[in-house]
Design goal:
Largest sheet: 5 strands, antiparallel
Bound molecules: uridine-diphosphate-2(N-acetylglucosaminyl) butyric acid
Strand order of the largest sheet: 6-7-14-10-11
Oligomer: single chain
Radius of gyration: 20 Å
Distance between the termini: 11 Å
Length: about 300
Amino acid sequence: MRLEDPKILVELAALGVDHRRGIALSGLTSLGIGGTTDLLRITRHDSIAPLVGLLAANGIPYKFLGGGSNLLVADGDLPWVVLQLVAPDSDIVLEGNLAHVDAAADLGRTVTFCAKHDLGGMEGLIGVPGTVGGALRMNAGAYGMQIGTYVREVKVFRAAARAIEILRGHQISFEYRHTSFAPDDMMLAVTLELPAKPYKEILQGIRICNEKRRSSQPLGQKSAGCIFKNPPGASAGRLIDELGLKNLHVGDARVSDRHANFFVNAGRASAKDMLALISRVRDGVQQAFGVALENEVVVWNA
Ligand code: EPU
């Protein structure tokens, strides 16, 4: 979708929104898949409500993009524009055991920054790509920890009310790869309360997690992490592997030979290829084990 109306363009500029025309979302997602649309980059939280109001008044659909690391975007010319927060220069501010973090901050950098200041707890998240906001929305976790455990407060833009709200940690439910945030809530910032730990000790934990990840996941390849959530008491990767589906492919969309719950873009995979591969694997697992796999990856259809 292209924003052409000069009146809208003037209003965007007045709001300080950085309007980038015809951006290929394949360049903004870790899968390297996705069509083209206009990107609206937001530097000021207080411009979001008027921006969403402007888009609604003009019947322009929109979606919020985080780090694009758990996302499968449709191909072609996309029928909505994309809003993305730009991180401020100082996106992590520490205050005792508290870390005030902008939602657009890189997750890995946040983990290491806090570690260097003797704040731990998030070692397991070290190799998880994406932004802090994205991790928060889906309650990202690995190696026995999840980000929700450390959330003290969240600043969120609620599109339904077109207002910014501050939620305390106990007002949000954090479950396995799921939170009580509404689908159109946009994470703006979070305050994490982290346990004090010497940097050396945290570093050791980080090294162990990195090593485990390197030995079991296809880190150098384009993927969205795990495609499916694990069903209760089982591992989706193990089920897919047991079916012998590693390396199954539709075009360049391929089940990783390293970890069967990672589907990689091995060249020029389209969203259509990837969606077909997801369906085939889901159907196979359903037929063989009677287990209905649920997507972990978020799909943006056109
Ligand atoms: N396994 C296989 N074949 C495979 C993959 C796994 O036999 O192709 C076996 C492993 O050998 C192991 C078991 O399945 O015995 C579990 O595998 P793993 O330790 O890799 O954990 P997982 O359940 O597949 C989960 C998360 C990962 C997270 C790891 C480590 C989900 C869907 N996945 O994977 O998170 O990194 O544990 O904590 O919850 C993600 O969410 O995107 C993600 C990568």
